[in-house]
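Per-record layout

source: Arabidopsis suecica
name: O-fucosyltransferase family protein
length: 433
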Amino acid sequence: MVTANGGINQQRVAVCNIVVVARLLNAALVIPKFMLSDVWTDASQFGDIYQEEHFMEYLSPDIRIVKELPKELQSLDLEEIGSVLTDIEVMKEAKPDFYMTHILPILLKNRVIHFVGFGNRLAFDPLPFELQRLRCRCNFHALNFVPRIQETAALLVRRLRGSGSYVAPLDLHLLGPKSSSLILDKKSDSPVQEEATSSSSSKYLALHLRFEIDMVAHSLCYFGGGETEQKELDSYRQKHFPSLSTLTKKKKFRSADVLRTEGLCPLTPEEAVLMLAALGFNRETRVFVAGANIYGGSKRLAVLTSLYPNLVTKEKLLTESELQPFKNFSSQLAALDFIACAAADAFAMTDSGSQLSSLVSGYRIYYGGGKMPTIRPNKRRLSDILLKNSTIEWNVFERRVRKAIRQTKHVFARPNGRSVYRYPRCKECMCHA
């Protein structure tokens, strides 16, 4: 059993990892459960987001998946018998030997193991070929979104593409044949949506602006908001990242300026605008921004909308009634963002370390046939350009930004020890022989 923590993207990684662990231990897997987090405040469970029957059937050649524990095990006090294991008891990036040595004996003795808060608790290397392949099959094939999410996402993609709507090869994998056909069906659009999309280009850029308060607070960076900002972020850290808050008081950390020069601060909306403009995205570009709770709110987004008047979010493109089923379910809303970003003609991220950006870029590599460009900035290089020039001519700035981005755009084979979700170019994932 597993109860995964975090948001939808962390949970997705946890599910893929637990599938591999179950195969490694030759154990049946109970349909994963998701933990209610005080950060994400979403009670969604696996079946609210992913198709359970498809998940069970697709992986049936590899592992046995059941919906609940056998009756004779349901009455056991798993904590009492030592079958509940938390992240504290399972090291990060644990290798297969750890599970065989420490976990298998508990399973054999008690017949059941429950991992609570399970996340990145399985190493990428060394891992046997078949287990790595199973990890990829789970991520890229077994986890299909439920029809309700697929259908709403199809409306979103159609309105993003506007009058030039078409079904791209990636759409079929994201939405399935039935929902992807909705991209071409305009009968259900309201006059408001038709007016908003009729004159737009069929192409759009998706931008994952990872600038929510949790990211901003955890970075320990400073974003120009003075004492008010510092108090607000300190308060947030105390509530949601208590161990980090305690460390900042006991240990001297690098200054905010040093963190920024080392590329450890998330790009602000202002910096994202400069990057996109330098890359040649003009005012006519339709920009879809993933996520809605940008730190600083509409004031912070104003700089984006002033340069890109065709900037939209899912809240702007979907009607209130279309969004209503997803209200108060942040993971399900994030699934809509995932699909819109993966289906985009170009995808730009502001933080390459975020789970959504990593999973989306990997999905575009796996299914994109080398034709799905992803803009992945080197924040250290960008900070050098932005901070060390009090004055700089636009053409010089433009040239330097393009050079910095060009050096990160290549799709490499997966480096040893790196995520197969982000770097699927390896024989375990993409070789069909």
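summary: Residues 147-210+266-351+374-408 form one domain. The chain has a mean pLDDT of 90.
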